[in-house]
């Protein structure tokens, strides 16, 4: 009996010990399992968040389809004060002897926040005001051709000579030609130059001016001002020629051999001396210096050389609207190419050799078959034009 009691007591103690041990194991297992669950949940959440961020970043397009600034800001990551979209189309600079690849992604960077604008990036879009506006130019007629002449606000003499030569609207009888000069606000002697501009406007009525400074790096703003002016005040024109004030321009050849009034007006038409396989210059000593912060791509889309190019008037409104949604670059002609690329409208190849991008010595019959020749201005332009206009019909085709 004592033996049974001892054995029974031993078995009951063992049983209690065993039960207690198993309970402790179960509790430890539950704590371990709960810990693993929490770690697993946190791990899955972390990887999901990381994956969402990566895919969002990789698919964030550097150009926006909306022109509404509030919609554009909503697309930016609010956690990033200075968001920089990725440019998957960027490639290393190729060997100069090889053709440069054209951008595979949109080269038009989305609008930056106002606090992140690079000093060389012209402020745009911006509510610039027209200070001088010859809006009556197109009220009584729908011109076939508008000449947008680019020049400095203080350079009165160049404008006077152009009014005497190829910019003289009375020269062209069979088609309506309108000439306007695009200027900004003078950096030096601002008040005096502005008074002269207002007096000049009262006499000739052909100056278009907005309240941005008249500098080389604002040439893009000046051209966009011309696009805006056509869109708002001359929307029924047929064609436009944007041209610098140091050019010889053969308006007759432009009208009758390239644009041809007898044919239907083209749409989505943009032509000139086409430049391709070029990129921004990165060295600061160059006049055309463009840092990566302004334009990251190593190549520009094809564009028409800035001294002179022609386009159908419908393109003025399209380019003006495109410029509201992408970052403006100071190289005016390159920016026009970027706008064309954004709109998927390539420049049109002109007949060969009619847009001359450099200076050649004057030859009557040679100039009679050209539209533009660079580096003619002042008294030299006046003398060349007198001879050309008087004798041009003497050249045989």
UniProtKB/TrEMBL annotation:
Origin: domain of life: Eukaryota
Listed GO CC annotations: Golgi membrane
Location of this chain's protein in the cell: Golgi apparatus membrane
Single GO MF annotation: N-acetyl-beta-D-glucosaminide beta-(1,3)-galactosyltransferase activity
Protein EC: 2.4.1.-
Annotated region (Disordered), positions in chain: 71-114
Principal place of residence: Golgi
Similarity comment text for this entry: Belongs to the glycosyltransferase 31 family.
Protein name per its UniProtKB record: Hexosyltransferase
Gene: b3galt2l.11
């Amino acid at each position: 009996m004592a033996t049974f009691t001892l054995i029974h007591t031993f078995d009951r103690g063992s049983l209690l010990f065993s039960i207690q041990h198993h309970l402790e194991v179960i509790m430890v297992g539950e704590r371990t399992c709960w810990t693993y669950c929490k770690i697993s949940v946190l791990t899955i959440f972390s990887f999901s968040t990381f994956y969402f961020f990566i895919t969002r970043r990789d698919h964030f397009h550097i150009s926006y389809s909306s022109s509404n600034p509030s919609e554009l800001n909503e697309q930016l990551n609010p956690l990033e004060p200075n968001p920089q979209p990725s440019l998957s189309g960027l490639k290393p600079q190729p060997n100069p002897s090889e053709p440069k690849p054209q951008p595979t992604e949109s080269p038009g960077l989305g609008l930056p926040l106002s606090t992140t604008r690079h000093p060389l990036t012209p402020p745009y879009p911006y509510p610039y005001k027209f200070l001088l506006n010859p809006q009556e130019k197109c009220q009584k007629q729908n011109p076939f051709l508008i000449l947008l002449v680019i020049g400095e606000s203080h350079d009165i003499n160049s404008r006077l000579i152009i009014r005497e030569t190829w910019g003289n609207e009375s020269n062209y009888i069979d088609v309506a030609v309108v000439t306007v000069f695009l200027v900004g606000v003078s950096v030096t002697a601002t008040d005096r130059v502005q008074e002269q501009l207002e007096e000049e406007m009262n006499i000739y009525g052909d100056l278009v001016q907005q309240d941005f400074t008249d500098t080389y790096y604002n040439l893009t703003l000046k051209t966009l001002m011309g696009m805006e002016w056509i869109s708002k005040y001359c929307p029924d024109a047929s064609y436009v020629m944007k041209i610098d004030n140091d050019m010889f321009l053969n308006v007759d050849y432009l009208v009758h051999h390239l644009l041809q009034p007898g044919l239907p007006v083209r749409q989505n038409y943009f032509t000139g001396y086409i430049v391709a396989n070029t990129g921004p210059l990165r060295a600061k000593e160059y006049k055309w210096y463009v840092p990566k912060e302004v334009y990251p791509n190593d190549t520009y889309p094809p564009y028409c050389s800035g001294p002179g190019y022609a386009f159908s008037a419908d393109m003025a409104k399209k380019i003006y609207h495109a410029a509201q949604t992408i970052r403006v670059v100071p190289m005016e002609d390159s920016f026009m190419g970027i706008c064309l690329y954004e709109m998927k409208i390539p420049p049109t190849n002109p007949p060969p050799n009619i847009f001359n991008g450099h200076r050649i010595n004057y030859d009557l019959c040679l100039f009679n078959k050209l539209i533009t020749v660079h580096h003619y201005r002042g008294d030299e332009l006046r003398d060349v034009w007198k001879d050309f206009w008087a004798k041009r019909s003497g050249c045989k085709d």
